[in-house]
Amino acid sequence: MTASAMEKIYHHYSGPVFRYFYRMGGDYNLAEELTQETFYRVLVSLKRYRGESTLSTWLFRIAFHVYTVNLRSHFRSRCLPLDQDIPDMGRFGDPVRSLEKAENHQLISLALQQLPAGYRTVIVLRIFEGLSFEEIGAVLNKSPSTTRVALSRARQRYRQVYNQLANGYSD
User: pTM score, two decimals?
Assistant: First the structure.
């Protein structure tokens, strides 16, 4: 593999991989660190890629493994800091609307962080990264139908958590 080919892979997939980690853990620095670890592992194991799945599926499988290993070794807080999404408020526009938008975004992030890791993974890969059920199944070593059921349950649990948070309750 040439350096330019690896660079193309990195530029194409680093954003989605970073977003996956950020949405899974809510920590910008950790997401950067895990993204770097993922691409290091991709570089080391690229010779073993056999093309049995798409490159994105194979890469997200590595990212999922990196996240799982990190989760096991470092138990971290599952909530975002309260000021995480406030920087958008400095932009032009209605400050009340900006605050409401930031609060809603914060509520969505908090609800996502309170889901079990398996549910969070399915939601992030399907909704935010646009992977198919077949691709998510390959990442998680599950069938597409099992992945569909998991997404349905994850959405249901997400709605419950979101509504509790929106009404002022917390787990």
Answer: 0.63
Residue 140 has pLDDT above 90, yes or no: yes
What average pLDDT score do residues 157-171 get?
A: 80
Q: What is the mean pLDDT of the chain?
A: 83
**Domain definitions of the chain by residue range:** 3-73, 88-166
SS3 sequence of the chain: CCHHHHHHHHHHHHHHHHHHHHHHHCCHHHHHHHHHHHHHHHHHHHHHCCCCCCHHHHHHHHHHHHHHHHHHHCCCCCCCCCCCCHHHHHCCCCHHHHHHHHHHHHHHHHHHHCCCHHHHHHHHHHHHCCCCHHHHHHHHCCCHHHHHHHHHHHHHHHHHHHHHHHCCCCC
Residue that is written with structure tokens 């079990």 in the block:
116
Q: Would you say domain 3-73 falls under CATH 1.10.1740.10? A: yes
Residue 9 in tokens: 């892979």
Q: What would be the CATH architecture of the domain defined by 88-166?
A: Orthogonal Bundle (1.10)
